[in-house]
Amino acid sequence: MDVKIEASWKDELQSEFHKEYFTNLIQFVKNEYISHRCYPPGSEIFSAFDHTPFDKVKVVLLGQDPYHGPGQANGLCFSVKDGVPFPPSLQNIFREIESDINRDIPKSGNLDRWAAQGVLLLNATLTVRAHQAGSHQRKGWEQFTDAVISKLSEKRAGIVFLLWGGYAKKKGAKIDTSKHHVLESGHPSPLSANRGYWFNNKHFSKTNELLTAMGKAPIDW
């Protein structure tokens, strides 16, 4: 199957594209996009990979599902298109960055600037039906993104994985912590953040300290 995805990822994931689950998944996604409004736009489903080639990944941020409101999702987890109001989780991410590293809250919630620096912004499920959170879960995307995490864990070293919330922590269970760094906290959603599980985790300064200690350029958050 010819999947339109960045070349280095295509090489790494080629075996997945020929598996039965992936063929079924792509057929499901095609049918959904034909018969319903779905997000992100078809050309942006693999945006996380297109922005951050396999060998350039320094940080992995795991999300769960794309935003399901009009014009929000752009294929990068937690990110929205320029000019779109910040969803609550993204507001809390920016508030933590502000307090952690004294960085002003940006005007745009488009996180492609992070992706360009080596932050793989990976949702566990890459598509969703409009206004129906979780509607494309358990159709095969999770198996595909598990394979992505396994490839990075196996073939790379020194990646910082940011696991926010119980779902991300479970998904990151197979990361080889003997050669990668894992930072865990609650999810930035209001439900978790307002109960004290998100703010003051200092993941942004901690990530940069780890990268700097490995001789890598820190992320300009």
From TrEMBL:
<keyword id="KW-0227">DNA damage</keyword>
<comment type="similarity">
    <text>Belongs to the uracil-DNA glycosylase (UDG) superfamily. UNG family.</text>
</comment>
<dbReference type="InterPro" id="IPR036895">
    <property type="entry name" value="Uracil-DNA_glycosylase-like_sf"/>
</dbReference>
<dbReference type="InterPro" id="IPR002043">
    <property type="entry name" value="UDG_fam1"/>
</dbReference>
<dbReference type="Pfam" id="PF03167">
    <property type="entry name" value="UDG"/>
</dbReference>
<keyword id="KW-0326">Glycosidase</keyword>
<comment type="function">
    <text>Excises uracil residues from the DNA which can arise as a result of misincorporation of dUMP residues by DNA polymerase or due to deamination of cytosine.</text>
</comment>
<dbReference type="InterPro" id="IPR018085">
    <property type="entry name" value="Ura-DNA_Glyclase_AS"/>
</dbReference>
<keyword id="KW-0234">DNA repair</keyword>
<protein>
    <recommendedName>
        <fullName>Uracil-DNA glycosylase</fullName>
        <ecNumber>3.2.2.27</ecNumber>
    </recommendedName>
</protein>
<feature type="active site" description="Proton acceptor">
    <location>
        <position position="65"/>
    </location>
</feature>
<feature type="domain" description="Uracil-DNA glycosylase-like">
    <location>
        <begin position="50"/>
        <end position="211"/>
    </location>
</feature>
<keyword id="KW-0963">Cytoplasm</keyword>
<dbReference type="GO" id="GO:0004844">
    <property type="term" value="F:uracil DNA N-glycosylase activity"/>
</dbReference>
<dbReference type="InterPro" id="IPR005122">
    <property type="entry name" value="Uracil-DNA_glycosylase-like"/>
</dbReference>
<keyword id="KW-0378">Hydrolase</keyword>
